[in-house]
């Protein structure tokens, strides 16, 4: 904007200075001097109007570009959240298929231990992704309306905490035991994660996830931006 102000000052000042000089030179009111002064003043007015119009247009475009950048960042945030949820959903399915729960005191085979370690490592990575998503909203890196930001942060915190203080923390405590050949310990958090009818999973993870999607969708719709579809979102 400073460049435009400089241009405005230049366009305004040059004709005016010339008009003043001509007024001094043609102080006797000669017709030629009067006509030149009028012409220079007209040039000054047209120049000022042109620069002002450009400044207004540039300011509008700048604000529009900022809004579009914010909209795009929100759409990317929504996509990242759906991708994280989808990855966690796949991990839940693979944990069931790999029989990684095991019965307490059951001997752990190398295959079971490797599957558990691989899948829980992936779960830990998705928990970190959720933490990053929450941080983008909480720190206003991606600005949301006040009525959306507070509940959105709470939803993301609930999802991230469910994993970090649940199956991920349990994994950090369990893995050293399995590596020494000890049998499966009780793993209530993992059982809750993979269970089909787990109330805690639905209350602290799935429910907040769905609410977070609705909040982001509503914010995007309020900004007149086409939302990302939710057809692929499951349980």
What tags apply to this protein structure?
235 residues, mainly alpha, Four Helix Bundle (Hemerythrin (Met), subunit A), 2 domains, 7 helices
Describe this structure in words.
The chain folds into two domains: 2-61; 69-222, Four Helix Bundle (Hemerythrin (Met), subunit A) (Up-down Bundle), CATH 1.20.120. Helix content is 78%, strand content 0%. Helix 2 packs antiparallel against helix 3 (110-138). It has 235 residues and is mostly helical. Mean pLDDT is 79; it is low at 224-232. The protein starts with a helix and ends in a 13-residue tail after the last helix. It is rod-shaped. The chain contains seven helices and no strands.
Percent of residues in helices: over 70%
Order of helices and strands: HHHHHHH
User: What is the CA–CA distance across the termini?
Assistant: 50 Å
**Based on helices, strands and strand pairing, what is the structural class?**
mainly alpha
> How many beta-strand runs?
0
Unreliable sequence segments: 224-232
**Assembly state:** single chain
Give a quick rundown of the structure:
The chain is mainly α and about 240 residues long. The chain has helices spanning about 1-25, 30-95, 110-140, 145-165, 165-180, 190-195, 200-220.
Topology, element by element:
Layout: H1 2-25, H2 31-97, H3 110-138, H4 146-164, H5 167-179, H6 188-194, H7 199-222
Helix pairs in contact: 1-2, 2-3, 2-7, 3-4, 3-5, 4-7
